[in-house]
TrEMBL record:
GO terms for molecular function: metal ion binding; nicotinamidase activity. Keywords: Hydrolase, Metal-binding, Pyridine nucleotide biosynthesis. This is Nicotinamidase. GO terms for biological process: pyridine nucleotide biosynthetic process. NCBIfam families: PRK11609.1. Residues 3-201 form the Isochorismatase-like domain. Its EC number is 3.5.1.19. Belongs to the isochorismatase family. Pathway: Cofactor biosynthesis; nicotinate biosynthesis; nicotinate from nicotinamide: step 1/1. CDD domains: nicotinamidase (cd01011).
């Protein structure tokens, strides 16, 4: 059985948002078009407490874009974003949500970030997504959303590792690209790990 996983389609990652992904809004119509063709559709939602350790605002000596070490895990410093219960953390208004059977919050522990929809960045806590998919007899995952070089990448790599046949719907992803080439490198890494690429048109054909 196939599952579509929508990654972080939230206001703060859209143009005008706190951590805007360039042209992130372009994936929303594709997400809506694809949903009816999947028997199971789930979403992830970046969902941080106001004092989350990934926020540069919490570290006097660091700025947005710096990478620091927190308890042995590399952490990029981000602007405050996707704060729990804020407008920025809400799923995009134009996203169809009636087919979503479950939304998985992540990044809720202030000490740990969680790019992957499956586990936090330390690989310690699970969000429950993997068990949920297995309980629903999912064998193949189709992943789209934001951002290619962070949460899409991490979710796709974990999906492969957990044994799901994993597809990246490439035209339905956009990246942050802090450094030029980050998205290409992320896609190459996903492919090496066994993630297969497909476009929404190919899949719908
Ligand atoms: C994300 C950076 C920080 C993402 C989330 O959704 O890719 N990126 N938090
Ligand atoms: Zn975040």
């Amino acid at each position: 059985m196939n599952a579509l996983i929508l990654i972080d389609l939230q206001n703060d990652f859209l143009p005008g948002g706190a951590l805007a992904v360039p042209r992130g809004d372009e994936v929303l119509p594709l997400a809506n078009r694809l949903q009816p063709f999947f028997p199971l559709v789930v979403a992830t939602q970046d969902w941080h407490p106001p004092d989350h350790s990934s926020f540069a605002s919490q570290h006097a000596n660091h700025r947005v874009g710096d990478t620091i070490d927190i308890d042995g895990v590399a952490q990029v410093m981000w602007p405050d974003h996707c704060v729990q219960n804020s407008k920025g953390a809400e799923l995009a208004a134009s996203l169809q949500t009636h087919s979503l059977t479950k939304v998985f919050p992540k990044g809720t522990d202030r000490r740990l970030d969680s790019y992957s929809g499956f586990f936090d960045n330390g690989g310690v806590h699970t969000t429950g997504l993997g068990d949920y998919l297995k309980q629903n007899n999912v064998t193949e995952t189709y992943i789209l959303g934001l951002a290619t070089d962070y949460c899409v990448r991490a979710t796709a790599l974990d999906s492969c590792r957990l044994g799901f046949r994993t597809w990246l719907i490439q035209d339905a992803c956009r990246g942050v690209e802090l450094q030029p080439g980050d998205c290409a490198a992320a896609i190459a890494e996903m492919e090496r790990a066994g993630v297969q690429r497909v476009t929404s048109d190919q899949w719908l054909a």
